[in-house]
Specification:
10 helices, 6-stranded mixed sheet, 343 residues
């Protein structure tokens, strides 16, 4: 990330007046274009396409990581436990695919993106595509008995009609300075929250001002046992790293949350390495030495494909997180969608 982009991102959460004024013309242009686009769909100039099964969008109105993927994985586990036949469509950010394609465990992150590889590990069918309508149609052509489709991100992809919209917010960072890109972190104004079906707050969101009439769910990310990158069946407890310096590496939307989680778990962080979201890793991204390197699950799916040296792979440990939701979001979804289940 360049120094300029770092300064602008810092302004989103610690605003300074002169940057607000400097970015105002670009923000105004963004507001104009995004408003015209929404109006074009609302008034039928551009058409939204309806799939034959319910579609639930899991998205956000601001840029940066908010925890959508852990939330999606949690929902998938709950829905499968209820006997619901569910699939996922995703844009597949970071992948170079051109057409809608099915993701498999053997797919390359450079082709399908990193998040879809995490999602397919849950056991549900996942299709990536730049056009989410085409992705949904391809998914249903392969699995016509699906009862429900979740779309990872895509809140602003209005070409795909949706049955329900879930918006995820970071409880700590909230909506930043409340301004739209590039003057702030928002893709859509805060008023968009009044129109969604539910809001999920990741972490403590006591300072957030949320619409009273929209159901609100709370999510907590809980760290699991660490897994060896080379042998995922080999796990270690956090206590096994007590008093041992480690290096933290993250190429996600909000790396600070990952580093804070590690510190909260008691890790002694010798160094924190930050890479852009969806970064295409190379072996040179690992620092020399034999100090253990702790990475996110999202980064691990890419590192497995590029780190082949046995000694370097042995240094890498993955810290998975699991989302805990209150109240029961999966049950609320099934009730709203009137989907019968076997539990």
């Amino acid at each position: 990330m360049s120094r300029i982009s770092q300064r602008i991102e810092r302004h989103w959460y610690q605003p300074v007046w002169w940057l607000t004024a400097l970015l105002a013309p670009l923000e105004g242009l963004f507001v104009l274009l995004s408003t015209l686009r929404r109006l074009a769909y609302r008034h039928g100039v551009w058409r939204s396409h309806q799939l034959p099964v319910p579609v639930v969008v899991i998205g956000n109105i601001n840029v940066g990581g908010v925890g959508k993927t852990p939330l999606t994985l949690s929902l998938l586990a709950e829905l499968q436990a209820c006997g619901v036949r569910v699939g996922v469509i995703s844009r597949g950010y970071g992948g170079n695919h051109r057409q809608a394609m099915l993701v498999t465990a053997d797919s390359s992150a450079s082709v399908v993106g990193d998040e879809p590889l995490l999602l397919v590990a849950s056991g549900v069918p996942v299709v990536v595509g730049r056009d989410r309508v085409a992705a949904g149609e391809h998914l249903l052509s392969l699995y016509p008995d699906l009862q429900l489709i979740l779309t990872d991100d895509g809140l602003q992809h209005y070409r795909l009609a949706r049955t329900l919209e879930l918006v995820v917010l970071d409880g700590r960072r909230g909506l930043g300075n409340g301004r739209l890109l590039p003057g702030g972190p928002l893709r859509e104004s805060a008023a968009r929250l009044d129109t969604v079906d539910a809001i999920v707050v990741n972490g403590d969101g006591g300072a957030l001002c949320l619409p009273d009439e929209v159901p609100c769910f709370h999510m907590r990310l809980v760290a699991q046992r660490l897994q060896a990158l080379a042998q995922p069946e080999q796990t270690r407890a956090v206590a096994d790293f007590a008093d041992q310096p480690v290096i933290a590496l993250a190429g996600i939307g909000h790396p600070g949350r990952f580093f804070s989680t590690l510190q909260g778990q008691g890790f002694l962080l010798q160094q924190c390495l930050v890479f852009p979201d969806h970064h295409a890793f190379t072996p040179d991204d690992l620092p020399p030495g034999d100090t253990p390197v702790i990475v996110t699950s999202k980064d691990a799916v890419k590192l497995r494909g590029v780190i082949h040296d046995a000694a370097q792979r042995a240094r890498l440990w993955v810290l998975p997180v699991a989302a805990q939701l209150t109240p029961d979001l999966a049950g609320w979804l099934l009730s709203r969608l009137k989907i019968r289940h076997g539990r």
